[in-house]
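Pseudaminic acid synthase
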Amino acid sequence: MTQSPIRIGRHDIGADHEPYIIAEMSGNHDGSLDKALDIVRMVADSGAQAIKLQTYKPETITIQSDAPDFRLSEGHELWGGRTLWDLYEEAHTPWEWHEPIFDLARELGLDAFSSPFDPTAIDLLESLDVPAYKIASSEIVDLPLIRLAASKGKPIIISTGMASVGEIFAAVQAAREVGNEQIVVLACTANYPADPSESNLRGIPVMGDTFGTLIGYSDHTIGIGAPIAAVALGACVVEKHVTLAREGGGVDAAFSSEPDELKALVSQSKIAWQCLGQPRIGARQQEKEGLRFRRSLYVVQDVKAGEPVTADNVRSIRPANGLAPDEFARVEGRTFSKDTPKGTPLSWDLI
């Protein structure tokens, strides 16, 4: 099923448009507004189309508690043993930073929006006139939040890490219930970092058929191989965490792309999209010159009328103006009807 394109800010998104690359800052500003603004500049320099934040405060996403329910497992690769409050206190983007970050992004030609985590975040983002909303994977079950974001009439991008088909369907329906059809569903593995073998990218075209939306990919693997493959399978949006440097680069830096990697993602995903072409088989217009130089049967020695056709005087060579090479078995042993100079394409009227 071919889905209608949508528009975010100044960019059209869909199968007929180059991939829309969203650079996710998350907590990689490392508590510094100056660093956050440097990340925005880096993203603009990369050629990506959008910068995205996460809009929450520790108290809007959890409570301060040391109880086991509020603590990550000790074996977690990045944040083992930390409380949710402690993690979100470190990673959150102060609300007063949003306006200067968004202002700089727009000045540099980027779309700038965010993932809201509660209604007060949506209020803030509405006051800043964001062009879209992103629903994080863990919030896909918060259908009231999805309805509220979708009710603003702007495109809504929904990550699906951990979600079942039923949960994804319910989230998409929640957006549609309030009249919003500008929906992008992102395939996603909510593991940080994710092993490429966990990506299951063959599900991307299945998701498009199942949910009737545009499909993208939110990537938590290391490198750019997975998102490039996702684009080849039909993803029209790619979201990737970014950092200025993985070494000491912030709470999500370990699975985030550095500047050179983000530039490579932008350029190579565009090439992957260009390579998709059309669902057809056959010669392209650009191959017209090549068709001239296929092999065919040519007279390769001067011959007289009455001489037989042999492997010495007729051969399969380039270019392609003579009989097909497979016709040699039919013409071998027959005689030439006229004197024929070397370099003449063999045709039926010569024998």
